[in-house]
Exonuclease domain-containing protein
Amino acid sequence: MATNNNRVLSIDVECVATSYTHEDRSPCSVAIVDDQCQIIFSSLIKPKEKVVSDLYILTGLHIKDLEQAPSLEEVLNQIYPFFDSTTIIVGQSPKNDLKWLKLEKGVHYSVVIDLSDWFKSYNARYRSMSHHSLAHEAWTLLNIDLNATNGHLATQDAKAAMQLYIKYKDDEAGKQNACSRLLNTQPRITPARAHNYNYEGVCLAGYYKQMCRCNRPSLVND
Ligand SMILES: [Zn+2]
């Protein structure tokens, strides 16, 4: 049982699609990484709902890979002991991850650190805030290619998030510098973009309003 006060954990959840909008998702894998960048938990998750696409280009998983996986409830029972009311959670736009894992403030964590807020910056060209993807942050700031494998592994994403946290948590000037590097570096082509933000009929533009064809609200923070 975890009882460390103020333990910092990064989390990442990957999802398959249960219907065709960018909101219709069900968790298929989860990883938790500690502040030593060690993977302390990872598991596949068997979706309860019918899956319309495994989103292979994003998840690297096929539906059959999930057949023997534990249910979400079973996984949650395994992960809750890692969290307590003092846990600090780090992630890239972790709002949805928190929702999938049913993590509650005051019970499972005290503070959430959202890296997409750390590295956002005002983009004069579009007259709006630019949020970057974790893949762009990892490539530009850590020289790690999260798109190198087929699909994002939750373990690799959670590790990269923790590395970014460790690298910049006590370096405000470095963070400012990182923001301008991110803004001035052309993002590489992501799997979603390579498929024009639509895979097997499923909208992949949850974080890219301009390409969304399903008309559900954007997942980007305001
Ligand atoms: Zn959409």
